Deoxyribodipyrimidine photo-lyase
Amino acid sequence: MSISVVLFTSDLRLYDHPPLRAALDGTELTVPLFVRDRAVDGAGFAVPNRLAFLADCLRDLDAGLRERGGRLVVREGDLVDQVCKVVTEADADEVHMASDASAHAQRREERLRRALEAEGVRLHVHDTVTTAVAPGAVIPAGSDHFAVFTPYFRRWSDELVRDALGAPRKVRVPDGVGSEPLPSRDDVRGISEGLAAGGEQEGRKRLTAWLRGPVSAYEERHDDLAGDATSHLSPHLHFGTLSPVELVHRARRAGGPGAEAFVRQLAWRDFHRQVLAARPDAGSADYRPRHDHWRSEREARDDIEAWREGRTGYPVVDAAMRQLRHEGWMHNRGRLLTASFLAKTLYVDWRIGARHFLDLLVDGDVANNQLNWQWVAGTGTDTRPNRVFNPVTQAKRYDPDGGYVRRWVAELAGVEGRTVHEPWRLPDDERAALDYPDPIIDLSDGLARFKQARGR
Ligand SMILES: Cc1cc2nc3c(=O)[nH]c(=O)nc-3n(C[C@H](O)[C@H](O)[C@H](O)COP(=O)(O)OP(=O)(O)OC[C@H]3O[C@@H](n4cnc5c(N)ncnc54)[C@H](O)[C@@H]3O)c2cc1C
């Protein structure tokens, strides 16, 4: 009997899963395997919000496989050792998995290939599982990746995206391959109160609901902080419970300016992945060094703490930081504002902010998080690296009625109108009655320090 192993990583789904399809087409029996990789824990990536969401995803994947006659095998330990063990136990001939962009994923793939080759087992790595267009599929003349989004997007848009695959009808798993118990979100301590539920079924429901209506208003409303009119699909894309290929096709079929704007955001996701695949060190080192002497954790302890806690005295910044803590997710406009406030206004090393985001974000992702932080800090791919977002102007533009601030900053819930964005303008007695801090920095001082640091 021919036997294969499918190693699931950031692709925890049954729909549109090329490695699973290839394994099922090529062999009689297949072991669907997920390894809880110790290296991920060791690198500090196994944080409560993502562990809880992951547990939902694994349970849902197992349930989907069981409906089709199979089951999920879960192991824990060194990923390469565990895959080799399962290969031996199942007497498998081949292993299938998705390619991925990060340095960790690239090293993991290489180690696994060598270990399996030594056993005479072939590793098949499939592209366009975690991206719509594979890193390296479109490249500019004279370079191995695009460093600017707009020309990348032009080429990305012309690229043929492969057809999406359906889910398998039947999965036959060999006997005798043991599994550890599936994790449960109930066993995870310290998760955000408002954390979304994970799993492919949940993701597909959200996607269908999104494409049926709200996507049509996405172009006009995506920056409306209080309206919360974005898809919230990022955790599903991060864990791969939804396929980017399927999303691109379904959004294009839905059509219209909203769907087009949404597809453009999916291209941003691929863009960052092709940067990271070509420059794996961009997860921690400046992509474009600007000779910054950032303030460190020690030098800016109180400012960093106020930022993390949502007590900076700038209501929109505080609202977004509290949303992050409460939901393990933050609106994109909030991410831009809070990151700019930390890196530029407070002139704190972007890595400190990126780490805090990764500690809480359910969609926390090396490519998207680190490279967006670099974009905001001006060390990344932004063609205007010295732009600084003014949190008051931005708040008035993107939260004109103050609904977002009032939702997240309870101390300001009773402040009416736009003054909620500038509580320091309230009459003295009203201001004094609020248990809300004064701004920790004057915006013009922050701007002057940043300009000086950048030699402007
Ligand atoms: C400082 C900072 C940190 C960020 N960290 C992350 C992160 O860790 N993980 C993450 O998935 N996104 C990150 N983003 C990008 C973006 O904010 C989120 O993807 C988005 O807010 C998720 O909400 P949504 O699913 O409703 O997005 P939608 O607006 O509905 O967009 C659809 C999808 O497009 C992709 N997308 C949208 N904007 C971007 C972008 N700027 N870069 C790359 N992909 C994008 C996401 O996969 C998203 O789910 C970060 C942005 C900033 C400025």
About this structure: The pocket of flavin-adenine dinucleotide is lined by residues 222, 230-234, 237-238, 262, 265-266, 268-269, 272, 332, 335-336, 339, 357, 361, 363-365, 368-369, 372-373, 376 (CB under 6 Å).
